[in-house]
Structures are given as C-alpha cells and as structure tokens.
From TrEMBL:
Protein name: Thioesterase
Domain Fluoroacetyl-CoA-specific thioesterase-like residues, every copy: 15-116
Residues the entry annotates as binding CoA: 61
Species name: Desulforamulus profundi
Active site: 34, 42, 68
Taxonomic path: Bacteria, Bacillati, Bacillota, Clostridia, Eubacteriales
Any single Pfam family the record assigns to this protein: FlK
Binding site for substrate: 61, 112
Gene3D superfamilies per record: Hotdog Thioesterase
Length: 132
C-alpha cells in the first residue's frame, strides 16, 4: 500500500489498572491515563505508516498536540483512530482521535518522521560512545 493522504487506521484497548492515571503517575484517579491515550493514538498512526513503508523503514513520533476531554473507567474499551492528513517529504501528520463506548474522549494531531531503522539506531548508539 502506498502512503497517501486520507488513509486511516484504528487500534483499541480495554482499560486496565496498568494504564490508569494512578499507574502512570500522571494523576490520582483510577481512569484511563492521558499518556496511555496518547500512546494508543501514536500506535494507530505507527501501524498505519508501517503498512506502507519498505523493509528497514519505520517512523518515530516527534510531536503530539492532543486534548483529553473525557474520563474512561477501568473495563471500558477505547478505540483510537489515525488519519494521514499531510505528507511533507519524510514528515507525516495525522489527525488522531479516541473514543470509549460512551463517546469521544480525545482528539488532536500527531507528527511522525520516516527513518531508516539501522541508521537511526547507529546514531542513538553513538551517544553512548561519545561520538554523536
């Protein structure tokens, strides 16, 4: 499949104690954590992009601008959706949203960059050896 504006992808999760605000340390309430929601949105975008890239390529997240607008209790399913809305060279921009069984819980945009995995990992490793 070729990367093109308009492609969409969804992924889902059932909220568990392991992805609550308490577990993430991002709040004191036993509800779906904002970082967990953002991670699910990023996963939808990553999976969409990965379907279209060549072997040895992947994407890395570089920007997230998201509002978390409603709480989701443990046990409820959350679906995140990513839509590719812009391609600028290696830069991909996604409209992302999430909803639970009661309705919308968050939305925004997410940016990812296409990378060659081996080169990227070499650059990261060079930080440990002081050759960055």
């Amino acid at each position: 499949m070729e990367l093109k504006v308009g492609l969409t992808h969804e992924t889902s999760i059932t909220v568990a104690d392991s992805n609550t605000a308490i577990a993430y340390g991002s709040g004191g309430v036993r509800v779906f954590a904002t970082p967990a929601m953002i991670g699910l949105m990023e996963k939808a975008a990553l999976e969409l992009a990965d379907q279209c890239l060549t072997e040895g390529q992947t994407t890395v997240g570089t920007l997230v601008n998201v509002k978390h607008t409603a709480a989701t209790p443990v046990g409820m399913k959350v679906v995140a959706r990513a839509e590719l809305i812009e391609i600028d060279g290696k830069r991909l921009v996604f409209k992302v949203d999430a909803a639970d069984e009661a309705g919308p819980i968050g939305s925004g945009t997410h940016e990812r960059f296409i990378i060659h995995l081996e080169k990227f990992l070499q650059k990261v490793e060079s930080k440990l050896t002081g050759q960055a």
